[in-house]
Amino acid sequence: MISTKTIVSDVVDVPREWIFEFYLKLDERLSGQDIKINSAFNPRDKTPSMCIYVDTRANYRYKDFSSGRGGDALDLVKDLFNLATRGTASFKVVQDYNEYLTNNKYVQNYTVRSQGRYQITDYEMRHWTNFDEKYWTGHKISSGQLQKYNVIPLDHYILTRETDLNGNYPLTIKTRYLYGYFKEDGTLYKVYQPKSKDNKFLKVRDYIQGSEQLKYDKSYLLIVSSLKDLLAINMLGMKGIEAVAPDSENIMIPEVFMQNALKKYKKVLVLFDNDEAGVECAKRYEKKYGLTCINFTLSKDVADALKEHGIEKTRAELFPLLKQAL
């Protein structure tokens, strides 16, 4: 008979370290160290590209750079077994853990400590390919725009821990669709991985995208959510408008830049994604600076609109909204 003392009924009572150790069949106990293994989702992965690491709250998480998957322990189980919800994953974990306890003794490690995060320390550029052309022209974005805003394809980039306490070796990330966003002086400020599920953007340093290309000779400034949207806006051929983008919608453009822009332009407008996150972030600019927010609903964003509907239809939908806002 199974002793009820060893039975758990809630997933919160299951050690998160055990979940990673058990389902990934790790050959070492997790006690605060980070490890790298071959991808659990890509059987062709010959170079370890899956990181098991401790976040800033001392919780174990995973990031699989081969497939783009990532998350916490329940996300891992959900992804490994193609389960519909985290609740289903929780139920499975509890069942498997109780079954494990009937035949094994598990002593949890309580000294899990957060270590430094990974950061990009090196990269290698490559030549443009037909795959790159297909991706960017699919959004109607020209090579001239990519060159103007210093978008360059990358062969790979290297991740190294900020504070490497355990002698972990650097991790090289290489995928087909990989781009570096660079400042005018050649400094990398962001890596763009359009096919990644969880980490499409990897920030390297603070930067207001498009700021170095501003001429301040137009009447209006449009704040958009991403560099890709900025490039898409330029492809529409709007006269009298320049555009910039913050690091992300969740990070507001610094106040010193905004105050200067409000002086130099007749009006500053905001055009973010029309999802819940984009709408909420746009409202922050409206509340703080009194900016007019444009509600563009043809697609999730302007870049997607160009891909899904083309330049002419996107222009026909967006221009009246801009005219009304101005």
Uncertain segments: 1-5
Number of helices: 9
Q: Report the biggest beta sheet as strand number plus sense, adding barrel if it closes.
A: 6 strands, antiparallel
Radius of gyration: 24 Å
Q: How helical, in percent, are the residues? A: 25-40%
- Give the overall pLDDT as a whole number: 87
Total count of domains: 3
Approximately how much beta-strand content do the residues carry?
Answer: 15-25%
What general form does the structure show? elongated
CATH architecture of the largest domain: 3-Layer(aba) Sandwich
Number of strands: 14
Would you tell me the structural class of the helices and strands?
A: alpha+beta
Strand/helix succession: HEEEEHHEHHEEEEEEHEHEHEH
| CATH fold field value of the largest domain | Dna Topoisomerase Vi A Subunit, Chain: A, domain 2
CATH class of the largest domain: Alpha Beta
Distance between the termini: 76 Å
What does this structure look like?
By secondary structure, the protein is an alpha+beta fold. The chain folds into three domains: 10-103, DNA Primase, Chain A; 118-207, no CATH class; 208-326, Dna Topoisomerase Vi A Subunit, Chain: A, domain 2, CATH 3.40.1360.10. The chain is 33% helix and 20% strand. The protein is built from nine helices and 14 strands. The chain has helices spanning 16-23, 73-80, 86-103, 130-138, 143-148, 227-235, 255-264, 276-289, 302-325; strands at residues 35-37, 50-54, 60-64, 69-71, 118-125, 151-161, 171-173, 179-182, 188-192, 201-203, 220-224, 241-244, 267-271, 292-293. Strands 5, 6, 7, 8, 9 and 10 form a six-stranded antiparallel sheet that branches. Strands 1-2-3-4 form a four-stranded antiparallel sheet, covered by helices on one side. A four-stranded parallel sheet has the order 12-11-13-14, sandwiched between helices. Helix 6 links the parallel strand 11 (220-224) and strand 12. The longest helix has 24 residues, at 302-325. The chain is elongated. The N and C termini lie far apart (76 Å).
